[in-house]
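Lecture 7 notes: from sequence to structure.

We start with a single chain of 197 residues. Read the sequence below before looking at the structure.
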Amino acid sequence: MKFLQINLHHNKAATAALCQQLAEGKADIALIQEPWLYKGRIKGLNHTGGTLYSVAQSNNAGSCVYIRNHVTPPTKEMRDIIDYCFSRKNQLIIGCDANEHHILWGSTGTNPRGESLMEFLVSSNLNILNHGKEPTFVVWNRKGVIGLTLETNNIENLVSNWHVSDELSLLDHRYICFEISNITVDQTTYGNPKRNN
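Now the structure, written as tokens:
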């Protein structure tokens, strides 16, 4: 299963570039921060052969997850996934645009917000999947590692090929790609009580 993570900065052109990536089958699941919004609704990601799930209860979504149609989506709404996973001790992957700096995830220095985030990660038993110091954020005068991929314990053994892509995203944020192997999906089949009479 292939994953992709990107901060779209609410940008229409970057959304079109992401759609191209999805159309080419470069991701089964996309972790999207700051999707393109129009009148408070996520736009530009329709007709991509998948389903979007938004964490926000309002229409002003700050993030969403794209799941290709052949991938079995979760049965609960996305805003319940974190609680669901932790309460059942299931594995969890989080894509985030941290904007905090810490040498442990490849920044050249550490700031107080980075220190606070690191304390949160340790107290929450979340690990960083980022490898190396390849910048996830690049503009003409600076670059840094602020796009983080986080996970619960033991899933890093299933993750391979985590990297910052050289593919053009049309943004200052670069695509983050990785693969997960040996995924099992728990499927529960329920009978329709009306048909069982």
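DSSP finds three helices and 13 strands in the chain. Keep this in mind for problem set 3.
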